[in-house]
């Protein structure tokens, strides 16, 4: 109780400081408007990027972010877990969202997640595990017999965890070892961890908070294995004690997110009722008969996993908000920190140096690209249909890969741009840098997801050629038919005829499209070659690993940039329209400049590359006076910045 006690004096000081910082921010914005005729309204830009539930977002900032228990200020792991657990309990008891919102009002759910992500990553991770992993399984994999759990999940009487990953298996879910054997005599399932490697591992909420788990296990009846299914398992009683036969230990101290209680779970012959099978796609009768409307086990498994796409979207949008906070702190600091200057003049703010601008402004543009892509992804999720399940999987996977990698890059860049101050824990950036590391592998290792994206690209290309057998047709026909496909839309020859012509947004989009298709064709040729060498499909794919990942990357970049370009038309008439164009062009040029593929494959000459360099320099110069307003647009609460270098060095007087 002492650990969790709110510090009233801290609250009062935080409120006073927040008011002071708000005045500073408003004056800075007024000054920027006066000095720059191309300035824009940060509020309007924010509403464009995050148009949904603006009042709810503001309510959360005013009523939650200034409460000290939303921050893990204690040093021990146990204390951090206690802080996060109380925050989760507070959110659930206040009924801010319901599990039904995931279906009926998902934008509301995203708004709450995004708002809290700014404040405390550990709390958000626990919240996400409870709702969009555990809760989504109950919602999307269960049936009417599981509806009684909805209000219990909403109010926190049930705190959930998601027991999929095992000590020996992560991404390869089909090979999980945990078993669920149906006992016909008692009409119960027996959950068991038969080997050391079958113990569930990295299970969020399990070592401290959760009383219920969704466990993924092999459903076995009369020694016949029907594959991976999901089961509801009580792991703690009403007093918080572990159920007999269940052993849980904490995974230990991590690089970040130490407010999340990740645990290892071992099941020893745990009996659960027959009704605890989440039976939307398959069920077991009282007589022990396995029934399903989807006889194909691969398709049935894919449907189970496909219902979890929202988890990747939440990881993606969470990464965006981590990146927003980190880059905002860096730009605010670099707009004040002075260093060097002309011998006869005063010191200059370090953000005025082109070298620093080139490091941070392209990343700022990249962040805007991922925010816009997530805006579109959330809208697609709201309008999803059964027919669009595959499209949703692709969009969510791309979002997760691009957003989390972008946040990883931005937190590192922000830390370096702030020099030694970026390394100081109290300035928050290094803490965010540690937290974002988990996002790169959570809900799917990004390198594995890139291969999934590549597979989707090859499948689409095969269908474009009117495939008769998908993969088989592709590898036998893609090489011969692909060259014409490229030549139909390749504008390179026209563009290269004028060495002085600058790059445009539309042309960059075409370049990315060409690379995506050409790598698809090259990969198809390589797979065809391996087929002739009598390699099986697994070995052929494995030997093509570099090209597979490269295809996944370019397909992701193309999808994100394409959405960025489309968003510009939606911004016509707004005062930030010109700035959005500048960011889009800068991000595109950044993609091309750092990719030697275009030079190696003779799509860009040395002269053209020098044009890219000059254009980026010019764009950085144009964005410089807008930089603070661009991060003001993120509306990071002052409470989160008051003890950092974002607004100067005053907080060091409190040391």
Poorly predicted regions: 1-11, 31-35, 477-490
What level of helicity do the residues show? 55-70%
| Euclidean distance between termini CA atoms | 26 Å
- Supply the number of helical segments: 24
Q: Radius of gyration in whole Å, from Cα?
A: 26 Å
Roughly what fraction of the amino acids lie in strands?
A: 5-15%
Q: What's the overall average pLDDT, rounded?
A: 84
Largest sheet: 6 strands, mixed
Topology overview:
Layout: H1 8-35, H2 42-49, H3 54-63, H4 77-93, H5 101-104, H6 106-117, H7 121-141, H8 149-155, E1 160-163, E2 179-183, E3 188-192, E4 200-203, E5 212-221, E6 224-234, E7 246-250, E8 263-267, E9 270-273, E10 282-284, E11 290-292, H9 297-306, H10 309-334, H11 354-382, H12 389-417, H13 429-439, H14 446-464, H15 471-489, H16 492-496, H17 505-532, H18 537-543, H19 545-570, H20 577-593, H21 597-600, H22 606-623, H23 627-632, H24 638-641
Parallel strand pairs: 1-5, 2-5
Antiparallel strand pairs: 2-3, 3-9, 4-8, 5-6, 7-8, 10-11
Account of the 3D structure:
With 655 residues, this protein is an alpha+beta fold. It has helices at 8-35, 42-49, 54-63, 77-93, 101-104, 106-117, 121-141, 149-155, 297-306, 309-334, 354-382, 389-417, 429-439, 446-464, 471-489, 492-496, 505-532, 537-543, 545-570, 577-593, 597-600, 606-623, 627-632, 638-641, and strands spanning 160-163, 179-183, 188-192, 200-203, 212-221, 224-234, 246-250, 263-267, 270-273, 282-284, 290-292. Strands 1, 2, 3, 5, 6 and 9 form a six-stranded mixed β-sheet that branches. The chain is globular and about 90 Å long. The two termini are 26 Å apart.
